[in-house]
UniProtKB/TrEMBL annotation:
Catalyzes carboxymethyl transfer from carboxy-S-adenosyl-L-methionine (Cx-SAM) to 5-hydroxyuridine (ho5U) to form 5-carboxymethoxyuridine (cmo5U) at position 34 in tRNAs. Keywords: Methyltransferase, Transferase, tRNA processing. It comes from the Bacteria. Belongs to the class I-like SAM-binding methyltransferase superfamily. CmoB family. GO terms for biological process: methylation; tRNA wobble uridine modification. This is tRNA U34 carboxymethyltransferase. Its EC number is 2.5.1.-. The gene is cmoB_1.
Length: 321
């Protein structure tokens, strides 16, 4: 099982120390109700070899390299173990010459977001709904002091720990398997990311309040979410599914989103990027057995989802507390 004690020791003398009042008990409770496959996934992490990378690149990729070359047998064993943790959704990862070609080219999103951010160097960062942690490693590559990701999905935790093990057990990033609604208001993070989360929330305003509660005064919110074209009053509420997703509740226009954030008490709210999701950015690979974007779009008109809604378009909004 994943051992969280190193993280407790790490935050004991940090601005996050108050979290120790609630976090250990929460994670003990979490361990009692984990997915039935969690023990199997955690063992796969243990099965991965303890290798030492002579070079780690988190600045332009998530990559580890060694002066020695893996034997064909070692390489195949690592690939076998990593494929037991499929599907790999956010990436890519380049680890000892093994290319984990994930469903999402998350580096595309990172390249769109990064130029607009307040410098991440020496910052304490929270990544809400972090998935397997790809963007957390890129944040560490920008010099962040500490990156904490939260995501309750056990598979993502084990994927993150597998990658960490192949990055010399780097401790600058940590994934905690909780949702933001379970976090006490810490109010200490310099930057809070919420990317690909908002449309899964029944109450956008409640989510904004939760994000705001984790930021320090003057801290920066980075919100990335689905949007549609329209004015301040335009919001899509899918009747059933959106792009085959059943838990999509609100897709606002950029103008509506800015108004919502201002109404929630954020200031300096601005949209810095809008991009239609392409078939190059989200696609099927050998590391994903499931359907992907091409299956979610109208086969005769890729400007629409299979349900007839506007195809996925994503915006990046920045704001300050």
């Amino acid at each position: 099982m994943i051992d969280f004690r190193p993280f407790y020791q790490q935050i004991a003398t940090s601005p996050l120390s108050a979290w120790l009042e609630t976090l250990p008990a929460q994670l003990k409770q979490w361990e009692k109700q984990t997915h039935s496959d969690y023990a199997k996934w955690a063992k796969i992490v243990d099965f991965l070899p303890d290798l030492h990378a002579n070079q780690i690149n988190l600045k332009s990729a998530v990559q580890s390299e060694s002066d020695f070359e893996l034997s064909a047998g070692e390489r195949q064993r690592i690939i076998y173990h990593l494929k037991q943790l499929m599907p790999w959704r956010k990436g890519p990862y380049h680890l000892y010459g093994i290319h984990i070609d994930c469903e999402w080219r998350s580096d595309f999103k990172w390249d769109r977001v990064l130029p607009h951010l307040a410098p991440l160097n020496d910052r304490v960062i929270l990544d809400v709904g972090c998935g397997s942690g790809y963007h957390m490693w890129r944040m560490a590559g920008e010099g962040a002091k500490m990156v904490v990701g939260i995501d309750p999905t056990e598979l993502f935790l084990c994927q993150f720990e597998a990658v960490r093990k192949l990055l010399n057990n780097d401790r600058r990033a940590n994934l905690i398997p909780l949702g933001i609604e379970q976090m006490q208001p810490l109010g200490v993070f310099d930057t809070v990311f919420s990317m690909g989360v908002l449309y899964h929330r029944k109450s956008p305003f409640e989510h904004f309040a939760q994000l705001k509660n984790q930021l320090r005064a003057g801290g920066e919110l980075v919100l990335e979410t689905l949007v549609i074209d329209g004015d301040e009053n335009t919001v899509l509420v899918p009747q059933d599914r959106y792009a085959k997703m059943k838990n999509v509740y609100f897709i606002p226009s950029v103008k509506a989103l800015i108004l919502w954030l201002e109404k929630s008490g954020f200031h300096n709210v601005r949209c810095v990027d809008v991009a239609v999701t392409s078939l190059e950015e989200q696609r099927k690979t050998e590391w994903l057995e499931n359907e992907s974007l091409i299956d979610f779009l109208d086969p005769n008109d890729h400007s629409k989802t299979i349900e007839g809604y506007p195809a996925p378009k994503r915006a990046v909004i920045l704001a300050n507390k």
